[in-house]
Amino acid sequence: xxxxxxxxxxxxxxxxxxxxxxxxxxxxxxxxxxxxxxxxxxxxxxxxxxxxxxxxxxxxxxxxxxxxxxxxxxxxxxxxxxxxxxxxxxxxxxxxxxxxxxxxxxxxxxxxxxxxxxxxxxxxxxxxxxxxxxxxxxxxxxxxxxxxxxxxxxxxxxxxxxxxxxxxxxxxxxxxxxxxxxxxxxxxxxxxxxxxxxxxxxxxxxxxxxxxxxxxxxxxxxxxxxxxxxxxxxxxxxxxxxxxxxxxxxxxxxxxxxxxxxxxxxxxxxxxxxxxxxxxxxxxxxxxxxxxxxxxxxxxxxxxxxxxxxxxxxxxxxxxxxxxxxxxxxxxxxxxxxxxxxxxxxxxxxxxxxxxxxxxxxxxxxxxxxxxxxxxxxxxxxxxxxxxxxxxxxx
Length: 395
Description:
The chain is of the alpha/beta class. Among the domains are: 9-144 and 179-230, 3-Layer(aba) Sandwich (Rossmann fold), CATH 3.40.50.620; 244-302, SH3 type barrels, CATH 2.30.30.280. 27% of the residues lie in helices and 27% in strands. Helix 2 packs parallel to helix 3 (67-80), helix 2 (35-46) crosses helix 7 (203-212) and helix 4 runs antiparallel to helix 5 (113-134). 42% of the residues are buried. The model has no long low-confidence stretch (mean pLDDT 90).
């Protein structure tokens, strides 16, 4: 690997951290074929690690998660002179992500596939593959997030001073690229084996470093869509591939019909544009009813809420709280965190039969808009990810 000059300040810091990393410097890098994962592998090579690349084959056809990504990932490994492996994950991706998405949209929720994919398709399976096939105990990805080992800082009132040491997940330093929201669902076992070399870089830093190292993906355009939407051309096209058209009514809260739709799967809570409804004031989707096949809309003044129930909670940086705590909550990837009180809900007998019974009620300090069932609510204490879960539909 040839360099055209010295690293940027951010690059120098990243390389220094990697050189000082505790433990063995052997690692498998998850390579998607994009610039972020390419630079991750390049940094590790430059820092003297023994690096191997692994690409997950998620779908057949063109796209960044398909043949295009596989070709670019293989090219980067050839450029870096490291081994490249491919794991056929298509069946797992279909069962865990595609089938779950289709089922969720049928039920009138807006599923978030990325955090589930990270847990069930990517990180866990990648680590298992690395350990079983290459006897390598660490994996790395190009996510913009950070890891800290030890006890959480004591200034956090949410964390007891006698809490055991653990691996903490932190926001990426560049808040415009921070991807910790999608990583809340990882386990301590997996998190402790991960390296995020780009956690303290900005996207501009990444591009500069990729150009410095002459990576073939340095100028590759960044995907702006969910991989499934990119693969099919749009999210609507993906859903239309799996779900038959089921026209229904668009109604106000009192049942007044104001329009028709071609399928509830094409709507999400808070949506205003694309409703196909003419009314005296702008309307927003406030409820999606799968049984009646209706989309309920209302003016924005009637579209807010002060609380929601979050289920399938994974506590990543602290033990499950036994009493109410104050947290910052982020309810969408691009939304700002807001202050709220988190109140644990005691498991019922039915809950204890499930694999992940933790639930809680979130009471926001201020009224919130676009709280969509199926999306993730992620809990923070400053830059530390405490945990997160899935927003539940109203009972």
